[in-house]
Fold this protein.
Amino acid sequence: MPASIIKALKKIILSSTMLAICAFLWSFKGLMNEQEWISWGNRFFTEAYDASVEPKLKKYEISLTPDHFIRLRKTYQQGKQEYFSFNLQRFTTLGYKPGQGNTDTITVSTRTDDIIVQTYNDPEGDVDSMATTLNLPVKKMPAQKLDSLKQALAFLKEKQL
């Protein structure tokens, strides 16, 4: 079989699997506990994050922590690092912007400048600042998957109040 067909089949299988997971989560949304939502959120971020939009990115780590923080660390080929972190208690909205090709953008917003932004090993100088939005490049996804992420974040935010 040609490689392009195998690649297309893998995408179809992955999409179908994710749809099934979303449907399952949606049907049992009231039954999921805190740890299950955290695990699902981590799986979402790991599978959905599209690092290909930044060709100089060497590696990235994105996580939803047990203490309800979203943390993203990007390390570039020349050693520069960018770090973003915020507590879900400050979370307000989750937006979705269609993009070109196979990448879209999820915009996570907080009440005010609640997102910590730090750079390390930056030739232009290290910076510590705050932001209100965090844009995450993600692979194209069905609306149900995005809705499940909104549910997870809302559930975890409520746990902190």
In short: Strands lie at 57-64, 69-76, 81-87, 91-97, 103-110, 115-120, 128-131, 133-139. The CA atoms of residues 1 and 120 lie 46 Å apart. Residues 3-160 form one domain. Residues 3-27 form the longest helix (25 residues).
